[in-house]
Design brief:
- This protein is of the alpha+beta class.
- The chain folds into 2 domains: about 100 residues, Jelly Rolls; about 80 residues, no CATH class.
């Protein structure tokens, strides 16, 4: 194919039953629209979260993200502001904004997740494949985060004296809570400083890199 020719997206109707499930970070997901389906414009994921489940603070430097809560109740923290929201809630998160969420209900919750441009589906599929093969490690996760320009911030937290305080409990690579507390091979927690840069950049009106 001529590299100068940009593929055009085609109309598509997808039902959740038609697509296979993936399980990144031990969470149930289905990719309703892949990056390839939309010629890179967007990817759409449906995700189910058990009570207490959800990612810690993280930031995407190359993508905007939109959540739509289908079922259940989530605690959403966006740029330091926290709210508890239920079905019908729509959330838009610009790139460079630190955010997190978790299911605070007593039953399974479900949300739709759009990323613009696409690419999030590739990230989750790769993590699901590595986990299924037993080869998801802290180093592999750090590589994927760098490739997709995504950073998780829970590896460090500000201490009372203003210095960065490290969380020092390496854990097995089996659940989402454990994944984000694992150190890389040299003992460092990968990429946490970028979240602080994101906060500083947004507070000053600059763009993070």
């Amino acid at each position: 194919m001529d590299p100068r020719i940009v593929p055009l997206p085609r109309p598509l109707i997808t039902e959740p039953e038609q697509v296979p499930a993936i399980k990144p970070f031990n969470m149930q997901m289905k990719v309703l629209l892949t990056t390839e389906d939309t010629a890179g414009a967007v990817s759409v994921i449906m995700a189910w979260h058990k009570p207490g489940e959800g990612p810690p603070d993280h930031v995407h430097f190359d993508q905007e993200e939109t959540f739509f809560i289908v079922d259940g109740r989530y605690e959403l923290t966006i740029d330091g502001q926290t709210s508890i929201d239920g079905p019908g809630t729509l959330v838009f998160i610009p790139r460079n904004i630190v955010h997190s969420f978790k299911n605070v209900g007593e039953t399974s919750a479900c949300m739709l997740d759009w990323t613009l441009p696409g690419g999030q589906d590739r990230y989750f599929k790769k993590i699901s494949e590595l986990a299924a093969g037993g080869s998801l490690t802290g180093d592999k996760l750090a590589e994927l985060n760098k490739e997709h320009n995504t950073t998780f911030c829970s590896a460090r937290r500000p201490a009372a004296d203003g210095r960065r305080e490290r969380i020092s409990s390496p854990a097995p690579m089996d659940t989402i809570d454990n994944v984000f507390s694992v150190r890389s091979h040299d003992g460092r927690f990968p990429s946490s400083e970028c979240c602080y840069r994101a906060r500083e950049a947004n507070s000053s009106g600059r763009v993070s890199a």
